[in-house]
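Colleagues,

Please find the record for the two-part complex below.
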Amino acid sequence: MEKILEIRNLAVVRKQKVNSVPVLNDINFVIEKDELFCLVGESGCGKTTLALSIMKLLPKSFAVKSGEIYVNGKNVLAMDEKSIRNIRGKEMSIIFQDPGAYLDPLFTIGLHMKEALHEGIKTQREMMIYALNEVGLEPYVLHNYPHQLSGGQQQRVMIAMALINKPPLIIADEPTTALDILTTYQIINLLNTIREKYHPGMLFITHDLKLATRIGTRTGIMYNGYIVEIFIPGKTKPVHPYSSILMGAVHKHFTISKTMLSRQSDICPFFEKCPEKEIECQKQIPFVWNKDMTGIRCIKHGRNS
Amino acid sequence: MKIFFQRLKNHSKLAYFSFWFLIFFYIVSFLADLLAPYHFDHQFRNKPYHPPTKIHFVDENGHFHIRPFVYNMVVDDPVFRTYREDKSIRYPVKFFVDGPERKIFFIFKTTRYFFGVDEPAGIFLFGTDTYGRDIFSRLLYGGRISLSISIVGVLISFTLGMITGGIAGYFGGLLDQILMRFVEILMVFPSFYLMLSLRAMFPLNLSSIQVYFLIVLILSLIGWAGLARIIRGMVLSLKEEDYVLAAKSLGLSHWRILFFHIFPNTFSYTITALTISVPGYIIGEAALSLLGLGIQEPYPSWGNILSSTIGNLKVVGDAPWLLLAGAFIFAVLINFNLLGDALRNVLDPKNW
């Protein structure tokens, strides 16, 4: 299969005056063509940071410490500003969380879409209308301003902008968080239709594990800057202690205190809160890969499987 | 454009009126060559401090005339400069009269003016000054200078301020430090004294066109610093907005983001600041002219028409029409302020 996105040993830190805090550690995964890779994790575990580092749009206070990101075979992190600009929107595009904030209030939808289409295309209008049609919007919204549309319509516009150039990689960063449950359902259906039609590699970031297990072809679970487990929903069950807790949290009220997140990189990231911890967990835990591209970062469960 | 007028009208009738009032003022003063009955330096030596001419429709015998007419005014008392109407001959007001050649916008030649009367009578709608020059004509010609100085000056200083502030705010770092320290140096000087000293640096015997451009330049070089500061602050916060990140994710260049996404979002402030700062230029020009450093006689500007009354309190009682230039300045200023206030609300798409 064709590798659309490949991340190798990615580590990102947030720079501070004296030291730098690790945000992402040892991220390794591959997204293939026509795959919907879901990334699940609680707030603050680094999901958005990961999405932004793929786009090379990290804020200035963040820095990539090590690792490589390949989009369509091109090393994104080694690129200069100009060549990355040519890739953004063309070979990879991103759908953001809160569509209202990510649309310029002074631009009509038509102007937004014109910007998404790179210059020099003659059939601009046809392409814009086609893309809007794809996401189920009428052509008249081209003349509307973002605030005149509903949240669901705004998100559809964002999706239309993301797919107008038919990029091989689409990153969706919690695209349904700001929407109600029915609109969420519609947007998910829409993303599925698009995937069936254009077969892009998709990275779907969410904190809704239920949703992720339903739509994803593979699902990764993130905790504290680490990917702790990758599993195939429906085929394998998540076995990492954190994944089990997360699965449990879907059904019952379960709170994990978030006050003391361990940022030590030399022990298991979930060590402090793990119900099944052992003494030997207090060392660097490698990510154990299985043959079907799944894997786990846990001594106990990794050993068993 | 049509929608804009509709919105402005709906938002505030007063601002809508101000808008058309200002448009009218600009058109009238730029067509001064056509509309003014006399050239600005045409002197009636025998008619100094002539009061505004009365326009008559009914003559002495009670006959009504459709065409308005004036009487020639003759000096009654040369010491106190009082005039009386010589009612023996009627001088009808003629429209599209012939006269010496003038150039509209320095391009189109015209020998016909909108209205006038035959000599020796004169039609002085707002009276005459010390040299017997028609104040109405001078106000029209002066408006051309005063109003265009404000527009050109505002455009120069806003372009400078926006670009400097925008670059400093968007790119930040060392560039920001250098630009802002420079702006602060400019802001340290009290603007009026800076204006005076800048003017004093240049020779006094310049042609009026040179003086005009000099004044525009001086006023706009003083005005941009404060704006650059504010724009920088706005850009600093706007560049963190989510839609800027979204624009970056579409692969747009920095310049495109700055000019197409960030600047338009500062317009809600800038347009208001722009209309409100226009009066500053009119006043600045008036202040320079008042001190004799601006537009020089015989070329009129509202400032130097007003300055001819300075130190001459007698005119307040005897020839109050000389103060009309002040009324014109006031009218334009208040209308700009009203319009600027309304524009901010009208141009925000969230209110549509």
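The mean pLDDT of chain A is 81.

Comments are welcome before we finalize the supplementary table.
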